[in-house]
Structures are given as structure tokens and as C-alpha cells.
Amino acid sequence: MANRSGQPDPVAAWRSMLLAHSRALRAIESELEASGAIPLTWYDVLLELNGADGRLRMQELGDRVVLSRTRVSRLVDELERRGLVTREPDEADGRVTYAAITAAGKKVLRSTAPLYRRGIEEHFTRHLTTDEQQIVAAALSRVVDAHQPVAEPRRR
What we know:
The chain is 58% helix and 8% strand. The chain is mainly alpha-helical. It has a three-stranded antiparallel β-sheet. The mean pLDDT is 90.
């Protein structure tokens, strides 16, 4: 994309990424809500816990979630009230608390996954060719990797 002077706009990719992210997420969240599924922020927490063999230290969970880093403690409270997550103290270090996904949490995660994947397809990937998807993924992975002090497993 070019600016008014015809020069490449150094902010265009950033702005497009932010707008695409915001609009696709809003559309997916709206569809999940209309279907009665859990909120996307809950899905994000459950996905991270499930991907980490079922539990993470609260601090680690806060570092890994994508959608609501500032509300992790409140999100875990909400998930705990619904029986989808439990808090477990670390027996070796009383200052540490783990969040752990429950069997009910795994069940809800599995039932929401197809809705979430359909939303990704409908509101993101169908608008890109296969080549464009690969280019976007490769380009944004370089940005992620540049800001990733410790390698963490890629989410699916």
C-alpha cells in the first residue's frame, strides 16, 4: 500500500493487521455468543491450559493467553465458578498457584473448537488464498519470534 505521495506506507501493514484482527474477532465472538458457546476469552484460557498438559502456574497462564492478559485472574475465577478450571496450590512453594483444566473444561473446549474453527475460516482464511495464508503466517511468525524470549509451543 502506498501513501498519498505514492511511497510505500510503513504503517499500512500494521493498521491492516489490527483492523483484520479486531473485526474477525468481533465476528467470531458474536457467533459464539449467538450459539450459546463460552466466550472467546474463556476458550483462550482453556486452550492454553489444555495445551500445557492440563495446568499452568497463574503467572505462566498470564504470559500465554492472547485475548485478555490483564484479566487472567478474573477469567480463572469465572471459569472456576463454572467448574471448568480449578486452582491448585503448589505444595513445594506456597506462593504459587496453578490453574488446571477440569474434565468439564475439556469437554467445553472440545465442543467449542469446531465453532471457533468455522469462525476462523469464515472471517479470516476464506478471504486469503492458500499462498497468502502462508505468506501472512510466515511474516507474522517472524514478528512473534522477534518478541519471544522463550520458545513456546505454537497453538493450533
